[in-house]
Specification:
globular, alpha/beta, 16 helices, about 15% strand, about 45% helix, 2 domains, single chain, about 375 residues, 6-stranded parallel sheet
């Protein structure tokens, strides 16, 4: 009887890391139902709930993000890092994986470093167009790096790079959406243009404030807005909205059927996380990106610029957004040539088979 394959997938912290990790795990299970997969995340982060809910075991490390300013948190960081390295060593010795996959996030650094020191095959899935410090350091020693953007040889050895794209939610690949169902779900008119605005599951303050500032313009436009405020801001915004009469603005804390929202949207306004961009390429939507300035090494701006260079998206900076975002969206709605160019160009960047391709690479790495 052949030995059961064991795989560690490490990373998390945000949905942008967790959803791709789960997509890879699901594909590995589809290709080898007997393989044993263990997730390693950061204690207290969202992966500690999302991964078990998807049916996988997860172990948490006490690792935290590197502080941006000197202070007591810096001491805490190094103490937790030392504890995480020790736990990672014990975990790898006990589980004895055939391969370790790092998808980014706090926990992937310690577990990948230990795996490399123990000569265990490793694969890094770099989601962004700008590789972070940890991945750049580990990438020199890792076996392979799966990337989603061009020109990544700036950060990694060219011979180790495989251009796979980023895994996306399976629901977007499999569901054939009935547009009538989508219009009914959001209670919007099929006769009108639709703009989808989303700042992710937690929300984006600047995007929400941009809508509030342009509320009169929106109410007079006749354009239907589907607006995901995020959990941090939903209660405050619904309270504010009581002062306005804006029936074409449909407010949601979280959109459970993003496939339906994408299906009827003429324009999508979004932050520029790597996972979100991969989804927008797949669904071929004219897109306005507002990169978050509050992420490590400003990687969202670099993600957005990689699309802007290909005329596949429009960028509005976070600083400009309150004044320019909604007027820019309305101007784009009136420009059919630009809309079609953006849709066509972003569709060329789609990688629908990314998760399956990465799973194949992981299994080949074990055989080697």
């Amino acid at each position: 009887m052949s030995k059961k394959i064991k795989i560690i997938i490490s990373g998390g912290g945000t949905g942008g890391h967790i959803f791709p990790a789960l997509s890879i795990a699901n594909e590995l299970k589809a290709k080898d139902s007997d393989c044993e997969i263990l997730f390693v995340g950061a204690s207290g982060r969202m992966e500690m709930e999302r991964v078990p809910a998807a049916g996988y075991e997860i172990v948490g490390l006490p690792v935290i993000g590197f502080p941006r300013k000197p202070g007591i948190r810096m001491i805490t960081f190094f103490i937790n890092l030392a504890r995480s390295m020790k736990l990672a060593r014990n975990l790898i010795k006990q589980f004895n994986p055939d391969v370790v996959v790092g998808v980014g996030g706090y926990a992937s650094g310690p577990i990948l470093r230990v795996a490399l020191n123990m000569k265990i095959p490793t694969l890094i899935q770099e989601q962004n167009s700008y590789a972070g410090i940890t991945n750049r350091m580990l990438g020199k020693r890792a076996n392979l790096i799966c990337v989603a953007y061009d020109k990544m040889e700036r950060y990694f050895p060219a011979e180790k790079i495989v251009h796979t794209g980023n895994p996306v939610r399976k629901s977007l690949l499999e569901v054939k959406v009935n547009k009538i169902e989508a219009y009914e779900f959001f209670k919007v008119s099929p006769e009108k243009k639709v703009i989808l605005l989303t700042g992710g599951s937690l929300g984006a303050r600047t995007l929400n404030e941009s809508v509030i500032k342009s509320i009169e313009l929106i109410s007079k436009s006749g354009v239907e807005f589907i607006w995901q405020t995020g959990s941090y801001y939903y209660n405050t915004i619904t309270e504010k909205m009581k002062a306005y009469n804006c029936p074409n603005l449909h407010v949601f804390e979280f959109i459970s059927r993003m496939d339906l929202a994408y299906a009827i949207s003429d324009i999508v306004i979004s932050r520029a996380g790597a996972g979100t961009i991969s989804e927008l390429c797949l669904v071929q939507k004219a897109t306005i990106l507002v990169p978050s300035p509050n992420v490590a090494e400003d990687h969202q701006t670099k993600n957005a610029l990689s699309l802007v260079e290909k005329n596949a998206a429009i960028l509005v900076t976070d600083v400009e957004a309150k004044d320019k975002l909604i007027p820019t969206a309305f101007n784009l709605l009136d420009d059919n040539v630009k809309l079609n160019d953006l849709r066509n160009n972003i569709s060329l960047l789609a990688k629908p088979d990314a998760a399956s391709e990465i799973a194949d690479i992981v299994l080949k790495l074990i055989k080697k």
